[in-house]
Amino acid sequence: MDTAHIRNFCIIAHIDHGKSTLADRLLEYTGALSAREMEDQVLDQMELERERGITIKAQAVRLEYTANNGEKYMLNLIDTPGHVDFTYEVSRSLAACEGALLVVDAAQGIEAQTLANVYLALEHNLEIILVINKIDLPSADPEKVKHEIEEVIGLDASEAILTSAKTGVGIKEILEVIVSQIPFPAGNANEPLQALIFDSHFDSYKGVIAYVRVVSGRIAPGTRIKMMATDKKFEVTEVGVFRPYLANVAELGPGEVGFIAASIKNVKDTRVGDTVTNADCPAEAPLPGYRKINPMVYCGLYPVDSADYESLRDALEKLQLNDASLLFEPETSVALGFGFRCGFLGLLHMDVVQERLEREYNLTLITTAPNVIYKVFKTDGEVLDIDNPSKLPTTQEIDHIKEPYVKATVIVPNDFVGAVMELSQEKRGEFKDMKYLDTTRVMLTYHLPLSEIIYDYFDRLKSSTRGYASLDYELIGYQQSELVKLDILLNGEPVDALSVIVHRERAQQRGRQLAEKLKEIIPRQMFEIPIQAAIGNKVIARETVRAMRKDVLAKCYGGDISRKRKLLEKQKEGKKRMKQVGNVEVPQEAFMAILKMD
Ligand code: GTP
Fold first, then answer.
1. What is the ipTM of this complex?
2. I want to staple 8 with a disulfide (CB 3.0 to 4.6 A). Which of 27, 97, 146, 281 is the partner?
3. Which residue among 10, 11, 12, 16 has the greatest number of ligand 1 atoms within 8 angstroms of its CB, and so is best to mutate?
4. Which listed CATH number (2.30.130.10, 2.60.40.1120, 3.30.70.870, 3.40.640.10) goes with 297-368?
5. Which residues are GTP-binding (predicted)?
6. DSSP labels, 503-537
7. Residue 78 · residue 8 · CB < 8 Å
């Protein structure tokens, strides 16, 4: 197809502003799916995604549209993930497009991720089409939202399209504007092949299916290709497009969006952001913007039943086939035994992986509290990346420590500015900026340690602003901090999986709170259990879990056997998420106690 009839675009929006619903309407209108095939939100494929109502992986679909001018166009819609964990994937999806629909909720107005996404789109020089959605809502105020867009983003909002993805108002207008305003892709079929990988998934028969946007050259079955970042070579077996089911085609040319399969066994060979070129006649340089993504959040995953260790490894390997950003390596904990240290892009990514392991692979896991990566500069000049608090060298060996910082943007109604400031201060935030979006809403900017964000910043932000605040953050680098390791001893024995890294000034208080919290969480056992919090060799807090006074079965003595059995069953049930640490039974909540302290 000639490129003048191709349009590649994506939809960007804050969570819940209606991106998926709008995509469905566009599919429906262009007849990409018959009514019978139409399922709600077809672009969100994974079950978990659907349940949580969030978009995790970018997906793509090709629409055919005959415009008012009588010409037929091929529109490629690339769906983008809406969560802060997946910014890099958003950025790669945007790089595959020439234009973006910016969807803003007519009742809510601009939120933190609206801004983050629009800045990404502007960085990629995309033509932005403003869409104000949900105009059917009684509380919709499109004029106010237009004003906000002009004031805050500086885009001309006079031409914004007013839509309701719910009722279908404005859908035809969007399609016309896509055709008339989004530039068609430039690109030469006779130049060497350059195709951007913006997503991939693993198919057990065909191997990895890489989702690509061809920038120049052509690709067809039989083409020998090379991945420019990894230098791996393959022979293409199939190429095709998304209708949205995968449909084979003879070739993909410049400007086209589709998939390639080449018997690739490992998703790591098709990294998002990498450039595919022709192995026999390679392009001189890859497309710009590729970077290797590194996990930001780590935690330990241990099977409750140590016999499940191999199954856990299997399950992690299977998940990794589809998710190149999930990292794991074997780890041994004195307290928890054999498990894995896993790296994730962020907290949502971590939750999703844990939930899939338990749900799809039927594993019962103990997870340790999440932590960030610390850069430890030792007195002997060595620099370590520490992904597990228990591995922090001793104070004597450490010269200084750096931790990751983020720039956080919070949007809230005026009334909550005080609450946000107080919370951010408490979380070691440095105030950077405050700006009025209109007379009622404010945007605050802070620099904060990432570790505070992954603890409970977002939850507390939501609760202290009655759910009105929206948050977005981006990593800005590492900064030096006064950090120390806080150890927990049960029965006089340090429990490695309970160690945390905290700021020196908060260490005393945290230690006391943690010991108190653990006292509540650890059930009474047949003997007394001292709980101590220590920094280095110095114990800073002590609590005691008293011994159980009575045998629980005593009251059934001589009594009804079935009642006795029931009681034992109940105890067993309670043990499900317990781990025997030395001679103390520790429940799952204990390992997360640090997250629930304030
Ligand atoms: P993520 O996938 O989490 O990024 O959210 P999203 O932006 O895709 O939002 P989604 O399409 O899931 O819509 C969020 C909610 O708003 C759903 O309950 C939709 O039914 C509803 N919604 C979407 N568009 C409209 C609209 O035009 N009017 C009304 N009243 N509700 C809408």
1. 0.97
2. 97
3. 16
4. 3.30.70.870
5. 16-21, 133-136
6. EHHHHHHHHHHHHHHHHHHSPP-SS-EEEEEEETT
7. yes
